[in-house]
Amino acid sequence: MNTLCKKALEFGLPIFTVEHEENRDLIDLGVRTLNRKTVGPFMELLGAKRQAEPPFAAQKPLKYDWVPSQSKANKKVANQKQMGFWVKEDS
Fold this sequence. Notes:
Elements: H1 2-11, E1 16-17, H2 24-29, E2 32-33, H3 36-45
């Protein structure tokens, strides 16, 4: 992994990781650390553009006025009393 990261850094590829003890060797190599708040500005710095709001940000939550009844008509009753299965043997 370190060799791959070294090559990516040599070529100037924009790579990043998260701040965690497991990633200490990557951080020591010079791979920058980003989190949820800093990854967006980093990507914009590289040329990425924000197209729109997140897809469900403006959507209102759905309201349900239907309440399922507690009658037996909604309950499923299994007719099968046991379950069997077969094992295919190699020939």
